[in-house]
Automatic annotation (TrEMBL):
It comes from the Bacteria. The keyword Iron does not apply. Keywords: Signal. Residues 1-22 form the signal peptide. InterPro entries: AB_hydrolase_1, AB_hydrolase_fold, Sec-Metab_Biosynth_Hydrolase. This is Pimeloyl-ACP methyl ester carboxylesterase. Residues 29-249 form the AB hydrolase-1 domain. Coiled coil: none annotated. It comes from Rhizobium wenxiniae. It holds the Pfam family Abhydrolase_6.
Length: 258
């Protein structure tokens, strides 16, 4: 009998300690890049987050379709045993919005120069909702895939000015050469979920973004009731490359929120 009583007490203590540990566990930061970029675009942000004790996963976003890309992100989330902060750049914002369903692991969403579509909206439609995007004329000749689907790239000669104007030229040239294509289907696909309606969100973007009009990102952040919105003066579309500390700070703010 004594053994049973002691065992129960130990179990209660263990469960209590486990609950306390779970409450103190830092969330894993899931970084989802957008079109014309890759996981390396998060390198500066990753260095800061890891220095501050966060586990980070930079997803290799397939950039094929919102539905399949978000399903891929959800599978990564399902394999983790910690809370999660989902961070999306550009088209990656549409992916995290779609992926962020009623999963108790996902505690926050962070939109980095990103789309935050409502149900029925596409990245393409949101790009044109406000004037200012100069992306279409900079796109290269599409690569024809099966069933009429096209892969889209930015012309390398125009990449620096269009996509990463505040990044040193040498680095921008390397980004242009290694850019990942997105399908036209993905950019035109309507969202079927808007995770920001249920999960707290944060937003950061540059005032000199030429891909997504800053006015559009301001409007989306306000619609989502973002807990905080940071506008980096003069920053390009790749604010996480040119201002990694600013982006990491917003992510950590979201991760620490109760």
């Amino acid at each position: 009998m004594l053994r049973t009583i002691v065992g129960s007490a130990m179990l209660a203590t263990t469960l209590s300690a486990g609950a306390a540990f779970a409450a103190e566990t830092k969330p894993t930061i899931i970084l989802v890049h957008g079109a014309f970029a890759d996981g390396s675009s998060w390198n500066g942000v990753i260095a800061k987050l890891e220095k501050d004790g966060y586990k980070v996963v930079a997803v290799a976003n397939p950039l094929r379709s919102v539905r399949s890309d978000s399903a891929y992100v959800k599978r990564i989330v399902s394999g983790l045993d910690t809370p999660v902060v989902l961070v999306g750049h550009s088209y990656g914002g549409a992916v995290i919005s779609e992926a962020a369903t009623k999963d108790s692991k996902i505690k926050a969403l962070v939109y980095v120069s990103a789309f935050a579509p409502d149900i029925g909206e596409s990245s393409l439609a949101l790009t044109g909702k406000f004037p200012g995007s100069t992306l279409p004329p900079t796109l290269d000749t599409p690569v024809e895939l099966e069933n009429g689907v096209k892969d889209l790239y930015i012309q390398q000669a125009k990449f620096h000015k269009q996509f990463a104007a505040d990044v040193p030229e040498k680095a921008a040239l390397a980004m242009a050469a290694s850019q990942r294509p997105v399908t036209d289907v993905a950019l035109g696909e309507a969202a079927t979920n808007a995770g920001w309606k249920e999960i707290p969100s944060w937003s950061i973007y540059g005032s000199a973004d030429k891909n997504i009009p800053p006015e559009a990102m301001k409007w989306m952040a306000e619609r989502a009731n973002a807990k905080d919105t940071v506008v980096v003066k003069g920053a390009s579309h790749v604010v996480m490359v040119s201002h990694p500390d600013r982006v990491a700070k917003v992510i950590e703010e979201a991760a620490a929120a109760k």
